């Protein structure tokens, strides 16, 4: 692994993350079914990639680690279900930009819940993201599908922020690929009761889209992301992943003619700029 290859890997991961909403749009099924299929195919692909790297996914876990994995798996299930509802209701761009608010939620939680000192620059990032979301919102009317979609996207970002904090607080020291595999397995168990009745009616083409979503946008993207971190620091990787909304909007525009308005593009620019600037700043000692 060289730095150049790591950069290629992380950019490919960002593109695959951006394709998640595209598959959510293509699959003619409910959010629970999409989430179940994605998680099942992700477990299979992660097991395959772990075998390639000769890494064990079945190592002994302590009761505390298992508890953390159950909680984080539940948060991941909420994150995916709400994201796909957002895609179905508001479109790919709205859903992705709503989810992109998660750094702002992390800043809030660290300052309010965990009593960590939040610097003025971090509050500025929060303000920029909030301003971007105001611009992205089509109208402040709950009868508007775009507004409802953005609300689901924000809930997706909120649950992902809680997931990131739980992983940072309690899953440190665990193999990231092992964590991802266990979390996807737990997601499958959680959403199975809500999706099992709908599986027989799923068309063959939808199974194909779900398989591609689980293998490429989850299993492969996570493998590329983890592999790239052997040569890149987390900040550099985060700056590239911040481009995910850009890729998602471009895919939605090209494939589904979901042309963003000038106001939405301005809001997207503010959100992405805030995330990139946050990554460029020196971390707090």
UniProtKB/TrEMBL annotation:
List residues of the EamA domain: 6-136, 148-277
Q: Which domain of life is it from?
A: Bacteria
What are its GO cellular component terms? membrane
* Record keywords, A-Z: Membrane, Transmembrane, Transmembrane helix
Q: Which Pfam families match?
A: EamA
Membrane-crossing residues? 7-24, 30-50, 57-83, 89-109, 121-140, 146-165, 177-195, 207-225, 237-256, 262-280
* InterPro entries associated with the record: EamA_dom, EmrE-like
UniProt-recorded name of the protein: EamA family transporter
């Amino acid at each position: 692994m060289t730095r150049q290859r790591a950069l290629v890997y992380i950019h490919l991961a960002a593109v695959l993350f951006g394709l998640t909403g595209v598959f959510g749009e293509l699959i003619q099924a409910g959010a629970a079914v999409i989430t179940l299929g994605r998680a099942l195919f992700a477990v299979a692909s992660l097991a395959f990639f772990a075998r390639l790297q000769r890494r064990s996914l079945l190592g002994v876990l302590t009761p505390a680690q298992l508890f953390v994995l159950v909680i984080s798996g539940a948060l991941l299930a909420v994150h995916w279900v709400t994201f796909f509802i957002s895609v179905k209701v508001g479109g790919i761009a709205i859903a992705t930009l709503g989810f992109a608010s998660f750094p702002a939620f992390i800043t809030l939680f660290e300052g309010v819940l965990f009593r960590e000192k939040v610097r003025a620059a971090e509050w500025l990032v929060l303000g920029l993201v909030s301003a971007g979301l105001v611009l992205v919102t089509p109208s402040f009317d709950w009868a508007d599908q775009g507004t409802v979609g953005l609300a689901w996207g924000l809930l997706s970002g909120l649950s992902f922020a809680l997931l990131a904090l739980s992983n940072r607080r309690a899953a440190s020291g665990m193999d990231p690929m092992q964590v991802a595999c266990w979390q996807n397995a737990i997601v499958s168990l959680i959403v199975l009761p809500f999706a099992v009745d709908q599986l027989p009616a799923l068309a063959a083409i939808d199974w194909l889209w779900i398989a591609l979503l689980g293998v490429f946008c989850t299993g492969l993207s996570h493998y590329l992301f983890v592999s790239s971190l052997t040569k890149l620091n987390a900040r550099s990787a985060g700056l590239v992943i911040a481009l995910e909304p850009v890729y998602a909007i471009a895919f939605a525009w090209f494939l589904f003619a979901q042309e963003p308005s000038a106001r939405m593009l301005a809001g997207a620019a503010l959100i992405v700029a805030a995330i990139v600037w946050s990554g460029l700043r020196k971390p707090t000692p």
